[in-house]
Amino acid sequence: AALEIAKGGKFVPQKEEPFGTETFSCKAKAEGYEIIVDSKGTLLWDKVEEGDPSPRLIVTSKRVSKEYLAYLDKQNISYIVNGEEHPDLAKTLEVLSENFGVTRLGLVGGPRINTAFLDAGLVDEVDILIGPGIDGREDQESLFEGRKKDATPLLLHLTTIKTNPNGSVLLTYLTK
Fold first, then answer.
1. Are strands 56-60 and 34-37 parallel, antiparallel or unpaired?
2. Residue 36's beta-bridge partner residues?
3. Are 143 and 95 in contact (CB under 8 A)?
4. What's the pLDDT at 53?
5. What is the pLDDT of residue 142?
6. Strand 56-60 relative to strand 78-81: parallel, antiparallel, unpaired?
7. Which run of H or of E encompasses 23?
8. Distance between CA atoms of 90 and 145, rounded to whole angstroms?
9. Residue 2 C-alpha from the chain's centroid
10. Which one of 8, 29, 114, 153 is most buried, counting C-beta atoms within 10 A?
11. Of the candidates 112, 48, 96, which has an alpha carbon nearest to the alpha carbon of residue 75?
12. What is d(CA 16, CA 14) in angstroms, rounded to the nearest whole number?
């Protein structure tokens, strides 16, 4: 989903000097944020205007370049930096809670980021919307994929079933 909202192209630093430490920058307090995980710091963005109701917030690793963080500052985009190769998702949630006021997070990413949150034990609810149609194309991603072979299947507990006039059904499960 991040690539759908990012500008075309790729950020290429002139110096490959990693930032190397944990930090965060909060450009604006908001009711909600568009949070994008970009481990290497390569996505390009339009400038966030003052008063944007859901400003962008980039989560990246300590290997992000100093130049990319300067670029985000120039674009008025908040960021969180932690983790060596990939962001530490548990630490990220702590920073989001303590410094950005985020109390609830909805994942609308692809299967890799969803699986990363699942494997980190950070998923407590799964909502599945079943539409009145069948897709099944090869290039359509699943909700989760890439779990280790020895990973324990996560048992879900159905809490809500909601039917909609268009024939879709929303299933809500808790993981605990």
1. parallel
2. 58
3. no
4. 86
5. 81
6. parallel
7. strand 23-25
8. 20
9. 8
10. 114
11. 48
12. 7
Phi then psi dihedrals of residue 34, to 5 deg: -90, 105
Q: Are 100 and 33 in contact (CB under 8 A)?
A: yes
Q: Which two tokens stand for residue 54?
A: 């859901």
Is the CA virtual torsion 149, 126, 111, 25 positive or negative?
negative
- Distance CA(56)–CA(44), nearest Å, equals 12
Rounded to whole angstroms, how far apart are CA atoms 153 and 144?
12
Report the alpha-carbon distance of residue 125 to residue 156 in Å, rounded.
Answer: 8
Q: Residue 40 burial by CB count (10 A; 0-12/13-18/19+): exposed, middle or buried? A: middle
Mean pLDDT for each 10-residue chunk of the chain (176 residues)? 77 93 94 93 93 92 97 97 96 96 90 91 93 83 84 93 97 93
